[in-house]
């Protein structure tokens, strides 16, 4: 498949859009489910507390993770696209950013 | 007050923050963090964690459109993301060691600066002159073009090291405060690197998602991202920003923008006051 900057930008745009829609839907569904089960309880965000494993919360978590993953995937895609363009300088730049993100998330 | 009422109120507040952030061009983060801490009494670090998620959402949503239209310079963005990611991780790590009062004061100062500098004007900064020898900008292939009314408009980039340094600072503020720090990013690209205003703003927006993701990783590891709070905040800010971007196309918002700037100045003063007196 031929890759050029215009094609890369179009695909990048779609990737970002898909990520936002997916994260939004997961939060919406998970949030509705969570509120239907725990909506009557009292919230507590004033103090530090551990994450309780509650139903629905896992779907919302998936939404949070999907949102954080979206820009990470965009950077990974850029590395692949620049490599397909044989732009090795920017393949390296993209991989550097990807390594920094990986360090932040898993380091 | 139960969780449903609380979530609904936060959702409503987040819509307002997204709207205000989009109409003033400053992003939802600078409004949602003071709102959550001042009006809802939420711990500052949780507010920042939730804000970061909403910042990724609005930035990615807007970038999706800009990048396809060809305004964002993907190479400049990727290159400077090295700086903002390093800065973001430093800032986010710092957030765990600095008192919330100090963070509130810094937040207020940055909000003050952003509100005063964002006048929405098309700045004409002195542009770089062409030289014959291969410069750093040529070697990095940062020069580009954007779609203008008479076809592609070429532009050149200058003072890359200064821009890189400013971007590290922008990343650090983003990680420390949970905002996109678009104002500092635009300052780096528009003023320091001499990029066209439209390219600066759209490329800044393109970079914000990655910067915020780098910060979010650190907040996630420290347990400062609460899904129950992130959910209404992200969905609300996203809705508000969508409505705001449509309003921007339909209305003349210069008056509205000035009114909102007063609101932002008041929020900034409130953050500084509460930080100073140790209430945050």
Brief account:
Chain A is mainly α. Chain A has three helices and no strands. Chain B has 280 residues and is mainly alpha-helical.
List keywords for this structure.
heterodimer, A: 107 residues, mainly alpha, 3 helices, elongated, B: 280 residues, 73% helix, globular
Overview of the structural elements:
By secondary structure, chain A is an all-alpha fold. Chain A contains three helices and no strands. About 5% of the residues of chain A have low confidence. Helix content of chain B is 73%, strand content 4%. About 4% of the residues of chain B have low confidence. Chains A and B meet through helix 1, helix 2 and helix 3 of A and helix 1, helix 3, helix 4, helix 9 and helix 10 of B.
Q: Characterize the overall form of chain A.
A: elongated
Q: Return the average pLDDT of chain A rounded to an integer.
A: 87
Give the overall shape of chain B, derived from the CA principal axes: globular
Number of helices of chain A: 3
Largest interface: A-B, 58 and 59 residues
- Overall helicity of chain B: over 70%
Number of helices of chain B: 11
- Can you tell me the residue ranges of chain B where pLDDT is under 50 for at least 5 consecutive residues? 121-132
Compute the number of strand runs of chain B.
2
What portion of the residues of chain A fall into strands of 2 or more residues?
under 5%
